[in-house]
Q: What sequence folds into this?
């Protein structure tokens, strides 16, 4: 196995492990601290937004200038839009399946339906996240430096951080539905299993198909931005009447930390 593909596999196994850690909350706590989860979601959002530019879009533009006959700004824009559209289409498919199932399911099956759709929606979100990590590590083949390695690790860390509350977001509702803590944990962590697969696919694409790299990098950025803005930021702002800036400061700090790492080491 190519060393960069192996690195992508190890990194995405790590993000899967963080998903499992988030799911493990259900073993120790019946109900996780909402303020803590909001801060963590906000911090992860800030990291993902910063990583989307400095670790994905900026390298995509630079590489497009060197390897593509298409103007770099078009390459980045096309890849970015398709990444966002991929996530949008994923959500539409889930929503359509939910509505169609609601029309034919009896009430006795509603609980199982909610559980399946919950796990499916989180799993779909994890596919482009795994691709983002795989693309970041696969890109190292064209410039294996400490700075580029740190950028790839930063992407994995950012995605790993936001996987923690995602794991909890699956396991905690399952526990509330009456599932045992063991089963809630197992189902919660399973939502992250697609990330190593997507990570290897992303790394293979950029390792063996060089011209696709700028598109793949910007595709991952578009997917990350949509997840952060549409999913994580609204979620972390819920129930914040008492401390309205709590999660917002988490976003600011996450962005600042990621920007500091990328600019300082880049």
A:
């Amino acid at each position: 196995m190519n060393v960069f593909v192996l690195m992508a596999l190890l990194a995405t196994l790590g993000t899967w492990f963080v998903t499992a850690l988030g799911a493990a909350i259900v073993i120790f706590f019946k109900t996780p601290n909402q303020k803590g989860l909001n801060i963590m979601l906000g911090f992860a959002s800030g990291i993902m937004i910063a990583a989307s530019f400095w670790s994905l879009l900026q390298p995509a533009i630079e590489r497009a200038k060197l390897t593509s006959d298409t103007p770099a700004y078009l390459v980045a824009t096309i890849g970015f839009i398709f990444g966002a559209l991929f996530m949008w289409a994923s959500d539409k498919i889930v929503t359509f399946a939910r509505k169609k199932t609601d029309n034919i399911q009896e009430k006795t099956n509603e609980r199982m339906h909610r559980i399946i759709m919950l796990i499916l929606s989180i799993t779909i979100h994890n596919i482009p996240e795994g691709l983002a990590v795989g693309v970041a590590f696969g890109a190292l083949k064209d410039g294996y430096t400490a700075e580029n390695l740190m950028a790839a690790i930063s992407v994995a860390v950012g995605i790993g951080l936001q996987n923690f509350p995602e794991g909890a977001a699956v396991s905690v509702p399952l526990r509330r539905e009456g599932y045992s803590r063991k089963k809630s944990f197992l189902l919660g962590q399973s939502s992250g299993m697609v990330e190593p697969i997507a990570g290897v696919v992303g790394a293979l694409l950029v390792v063996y198909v060089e011209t696709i790299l700028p598109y793949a990098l910007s595709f991952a950025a578009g997917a990350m931005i949509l997840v952060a803005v549409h999913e994580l930021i609204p979620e972390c702002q819920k129930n914040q009447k008492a401390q309205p800036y709590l999660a917002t400061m988490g976003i600011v700090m996450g962005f600042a930390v990621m920007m500091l790492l990328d600019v300082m080491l880049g």
The CA atoms of residues 52 and 141 lie 20 Å apart. The mean pLDDT is 80.
